[in-house]
Amino acid sequence: MFYTDNKLQFPVRVERPDPLFARALQQAIGGVEGEIRVAMQYFFQACGARGNPKFRDMLMNTAAEELGHIEMLATAVAMNLEGAPLSLREEVAADPVGGAVLGGMNLKNLLSAGLAAMPVDSDGVPFDMSHIYASGNIAADMTANVTAESTGRVLAVRLYNMTDDPGMKEMLSFLIARDTMHQNQWLAALQELGPATSVFPIPNSFPQDKEQQEFSYAYLGFQHDGSEPAPGRWSEGTSPDGKGDFSTRIMEPLGQKPVLSPAKPGGGAQVEQEQAQPPV
Amino acid sequence: MFYTDNKLQFPVRVERPDPLFARALQQAIGGVEGEIRVAMQYFFQACGARGNPKFRDMLMNTAAEELGHIEMLATAVAMNLEGAPLSLREEVAADPVGGAVLGGMNLKNLLSAGLAAMPVDSDGVPFDMSHIYASGNIAADMTANVTAESTGRVLAVRLYNMTDDPGMKEMLSFLIARDTMHQNQWLAALQELGPATSVFPIPNSFPQDKEQQEFSYAYLGFQHDGSEPAPGRWSEGTSPDGKGDFSTRIMEPLGQKPVLSPAKPGGGAQVEQEQAQPPV
Amino acid sequence: MFYTDNKLQFPVRVERPDPLFARALQQAIGGVEGEIRVAMQYFFQACGARGNPKFRDMLMNTAAEELGHIEMLATAVAMNLEGAPLSLREEVAADPVGGAVLGGMNLKNLLSAGLAAMPVDSDGVPFDMSHIYASGNIAADMTANVTAESTGRVLAVRLYNMTDDPGMKEMLSFLIARDTMHQNQWLAALQELGPATSVFPIPNSFPQDKEQQEFSYAYLGFQHDGSEPAPGRWSEGTSPDGKGDFSTRIMEPLGQKPVLSPAKPGGGAQVEQEQAQPPV
Amino acid sequence: MFYTDNKLQFPVRVERPDPLFARALQQAIGGVEGEIRVAMQYFFQACGARGNPKFRDMLMNTAAEELGHIEMLATAVAMNLEGAPLSLREEVAADPVGGAVLGGMNLKNLLSAGLAAMPVDSDGVPFDMSHIYASGNIAADMTANVTAESTGRVLAVRLYNMTDDPGMKEMLSFLIARDTMHQNQWLAALQELGPATSVFPIPNSFPQDKEQQEFSYAYLGFQHDGSEPAPGRWSEGTSPDGKGDFSTRIMEPLGQKPVLSPAKPGGGAQVEQEQAQPPV
Amino acid sequence: MFYTDNKLQFPVRVERPDPLFARALQQAIGGVEGEIRVAMQYFFQACGARGNPKFRDMLMNTAAEELGHIEMLATAVAMNLEGAPLSLREEVAADPVGGAVLGGMNLKNLLSAGLAAMPVDSDGVPFDMSHIYASGNIAADMTANVTAESTGRVLAVRLYNMTDDPGMKEMLSFLIARDTMHQNQWLAALQELGPATSVFPIPNSFPQDKEQQEFSYAYLGFQHDGSEPAPGRWSEGTSPDGKGDFSTRIMEPLGQKPVLSPAKPGGGAQVEQEQAQPPV
Amino acid sequence: MFYTDNKLQFPVRVERPDPLFARALQQAIGGVEGEIRVAMQYFFQACGARGNPKFRDMLMNTAAEELGHIEMLATAVAMNLEGAPLSLREEVAADPVGGAVLGGMNLKNLLSAGLAAMPVDSDGVPFDMSHIYASGNIAADMTANVTAESTGRVLAVRLYNMTDDPGMKEMLSFLIARDTMHQNQWLAALQELGPATSVFPIPNSFPQDKEQQEFSYAYLGFQHDGSEPAPGRWSEGTSPDGKGDFSTRIMEPLGQKPVLSPAKPGGGAQVEQEQAQPPV
User: Fold this and answer.
1) Per-residue pLDDT tens over the stretch C80-100
2) Can you tell me which residues bind Mn(2+) 1 (chains A, B, C, D, E, F) (predicted)?
3) Residues D149, D239: one domain?
4) Who's near D90: CB < 8 A, 6+ residues apart?
């Protein structure tokens, strides 16, 4: 169950509203690296968490935090849109630099939302909930969260560098700090589950002797000239899960040339497809 | 540039075609955990890789591998669909267990594809390329790849447990082994970039003194009763990036109650919204 | 800013887990009539609310309520999935009625989420945030909310009638009651804005003398035989906004036959399209 | 069955083609507030209408009208695109204001459509038919239609204010008038179904004594400090459906802390999730 | 401008309602091979047609026909859903074959539409307007229409073979006949534009001497072993556009190994990516 | 199985990087006319090909070619983005023409990808795999491929005309040449299947005497005034499939006025819908 106090987690100030920066900020709301994604991802991971209940509680606690980040960013978008032109004529009267504003801003922020934020990315593409990764495997979920916060911090840094508005820089320096924490939080949660050698390969509940083990630690090569593929830490030494030694293997096809049965009569294929000889 | 030899990486055999299992296999083709995702993700990461060129080469090499996995799975889907009923009448004649086949299978595999595979998930939802994470930050990309292979192996294990067809189990035991390798491969690639303490927080190019550092390693609490949130490795000890010590902090709102300006006349709001007093 | 207490708003009990009902419940989570939609819709309407601040506060307050409804339903889905078969073989052993379970349940609930809820609808289609209507016009928003709660209550009633599990019926009777309240809440919010005659037509800030007023209250007929279209309250009497009297008018084309200019050379059309005579 | 006469319902004139305005107009074609939405929504509501057949006829009649509106707007988009630059070089030669044209226009209007309209919104996002609300409940459908025409008129007003082309203003003044009529038409259709007290809560076929009635007219509070939520018409007086009196209630969790069963062995979770103690 | 008469183009009768067949029919409404697609595709092609106006008129005339087909199919879906179970209990009481009905039918047809049709495909995926191909090149449009009617007839044939309801077979035999006509209609429209040798390659307005002509009629080989690719009509003889002779060429890379510049400082990459040596 | 050599099929050079042209090029990667589409379409058609195996081999061979085209274009996008501004301030300092760059470029190319390519179109909309047409009917597939290469060449020509960078023009002249070949290749593949008179109507496996043959070659008229629709090659002479003679027929409704049964009690409709008289 959730509660609110209608206040912002951290101050949101905009000294010089900039509709183009509003468009950029939309990526942090509705982009795949954005805050809707992490809020809903931690929420659904919490709802489906099986096993040690502390994970559920921790995930839901941080989901609450991320909801507040959406609120901050949506406020920032609306503030940056204040003063945006409503008409092409209004724009023409503006200075040359400003002349690109209506063309450069996201028109839906005006046309659909009346100068406010939307759950869309910087190109106006709506966020799609298929990006909520909640796998039922708590370790896999933690890796997804590290990814989310890594790409999220990359995005926040790009936004920080894009603007020179002091208020916006301050807000982003808070969000960047939180991304720092959250990257560490999910890495620490992986450690809570055990050392890498007991967590990986994920899921650790599948007996590895059922794998085709000659391929479990082989870096396979698919170079046209049959040469070895680019070597690195991934081609030599002990594997990070501690259960194998990396090797390199030039791959050759082990399987057949696939031949399907002729088309089944009545299945809407051409007659010639139905009359082909069945594979032997 | 790519080449093909029209053969399969590993044998694909189906002893007892099962249209319902064909539907399940579609998740491994067009699901967010599936093979189109990894093939295209490594491909686009390679195309945008800046810095040490060995990453580009390694990524493109493994993209080629994953293309072959799509081919294997698409063949497996088509084989599992052979013998599927084309009509409701045909179904009625079947045994009681089989009676659920046409209802349970993905109808588009028949109606749109003529008993063959499609780039959709197990519910017939087409794969959407927004799931290709290629961030321009090589470390963030590696975390995304660990996630992809972790959720991918979880999926492959579920499919392995779902079927008892020996051919399908054999094919999946190969794919599970490759997921084992690839989890390790991307973890190793992170190690190639340096120890966690130099890689994290991602991006490592942003000076942390510009962060609001009091929040960089604080596990914030958002519990309604003001209690501490669920403790764990994430709330005490040194952070995995080695740059801070975890602490817990009950969060209170530091920002204002957000008040936007009145609606701009001409902007399509109600009159009453335009006439509100501006915020002070 | 948001807080949580990790408890459920209302008890969620499942006496006889039913994976097919889990699939149906997904519609109430990630369907267009579902709880993600209302939670996020009220949230974004609040964030963009201009004018009287009580609307922002009220919207955010109810957004918090709806977040708790997602949590309840996600719990219900996970509980209904407990006991679901993991394999086709496991299913075969089940009773005839249960024989349809694995075919009828949403496979992604198993394959992607490990027997837990996802932000998708009953067919596994992910929720898409374009359904969040937050127009910047507070009256239009209230109509959108009446719609959301009307279709939401229709859905909840259908789910109530679909199950005979006492726990599920109890939970749904709570959600149906809340939908009753919320329909009334948004209708009342419209009344708060003034009587229909001052609220409509939305937006009330556009001077109606700029409309083509002969068409503002005319029910236009497009019947092939030139007859009057189906009459009703909409074709006679005073209009609900009190500003006109309904009439009926058989429509005839008032505009030209559209003729575009020839294709611009260099624009990728066929030569013949470029050489057409320009319209006179 | 449908017929056409290849003429426009109302004149479409463009005096000064403006590719940026063409992009804005796309929102009225393929945006969620646009004409494809209403045309298809009324069409599908008509096709599924059960009960009094006059609703079907009226809905299909107005669907025919809206198809003509798409045609008008698509013509307007094509006309506004005439004269758009085909090359970056062509643009450089243009005046400073025009200098932003190719950057500001929707490139797909050129690249995919050859300077013509597309079924996309102002950001080039294709219209998605999940926005067609046709619920099988005629009253819920009418509320959805009021919403569609309210947001539609808000959009048309914003477009009207954006342009100063006399032809475009004339066309939009017609469409705004039709939105006025249609808002009234659907409100009137609700009245045709009976007074609010018999129509609401929707659906009116569910016996309210099966609801958890103590929550049916309570405005619930979720404020973190336990204070009353923002009061209004929605918290006092008789409810608009006439069946209750509004009250305010500070909400507390009535349900349990959710605890799911341990992960099912074979389900792809971590071992630790399978070994958790089952909930008591 | 469009008109309607509320009658069906062709009789729609259902003797034995079948909810599973209703789901299959949805593919013909909202599938990519379905009737919404052709109706809207011809509509938008008409609206953007430049050049000889007879194409616009013909396209819009046939768009009107296709709208009537959606109406027929939506009626057929609703009729097939009559008698569908509303509850799991209702289902259990049914016969074994019927036991799979609620699991096999599209639940949204019940939950969202109240036993009526929706603009979705047979898996409940909403139709997405990006499938409307209207390129601004009339010849390319005609090829898209041949495709639409070819895949459309394949689908209709599969549906015909799936059912043994006489009414449904009769309706489908009409739709199949129309697909026959429309395939021929668009092929004839291509002929109207001239013989293949003047229409192709599309667009015929681009001077072929600007192509890299050594590749214009070469069938390129990408076989891993350097062998010739599978020969056929496409590798020998005069090309169908009459402008070249087919040949086969084993392809080798003509371009460089791509090397991008180091990451730009401030762009959110890792430090190591910024410090790489620039390409020479 | 696939192999790579990490080199480009054809040289990719950019003399004057242009971020706006990078955005345009995205359409050729992730647009519906782009290279992901053809690569994946030929790939899936190959995987599902039944009948003569030479089609499978030829399709997979050309799929390998198209993968290389994506690689070329992704490299071109990254090169055009080099030098793009990272900040609004950086932009202001630029020349007036350049002043529109950050507004005109696709912000996700910076914010999500760090100045590299993404699998999205020129408006940042991700490619959606529902555009992969692989019908199971080899002739229908070939028509889809002709369409893909026709719209693809139209797009490439528009891009060629948009830029004056010599390197980009050279690359596009290669891709245009390949589109010329591929249009011819698929037309030739249709010829390989037999003359049009044996291939059409597709599928040729459905006995035409089961069609409602009076409608199989009739060009139906839906003009409001009952006049003949626009005549052309499609209304007279022998049909391209050689099996009929075109005629024109003014269409009148042959079907009933559709009347559905009253709403089923318990189905969530209004009471009034349940109480309607059943149709006679």
Assistant:
1) 999 888 887 665 544 444 446
2) 35, 69, 149, 182
3) no
4) none
